[in-house]
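INFO  loader      accepted 1 record
INFO  loader      residues=154
INFO  predictor   begin
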Amino acid sequence: MLWVVADPNVLVSGLISNSPNAPTKQLLYGIQEGEVVLVASPHLLRELRAVLSRDKFRHWVSIDEADAFVEELTVRAQISKDRSYPPRASRDRTDDYLVALARDARAMLVSGDPDLAEDRERERIQEEHDVEVLTPREVVEELERRRGERQGGD
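INFO  predictor   done
INFO  writer      dumping tokens
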């Protein structure tokens, strides 16, 4: 099983994607199937709800659907406490809580945000905070690799 903290934008992308093969959609399937354990916090869930409440998302999802999505993730997720003052970890201070959450849970951080996922930033975050940052595509590749190992071992 993979333990991940997903940037709220990754979760939003998975929800609104029309492609079942999109990496963000595949990540959500992994969560639903129990292959991926989502680690979330009250802050992450509030941010997710706030983003999905924006009018620009009404084209893809209603407020009721957005609320149901957040509630489903709340039920499925391993909920961890937020740190009051997470250490400085990212170029964007608003992302520091994600790094702290991943570190505390010993989980991978999934993001496409350049402030987290750019090669130099990934290396620095790994070195300084012991958190592996992966893109959604890399998480899907890791899931596929693990599925292959399980099938090969049957």
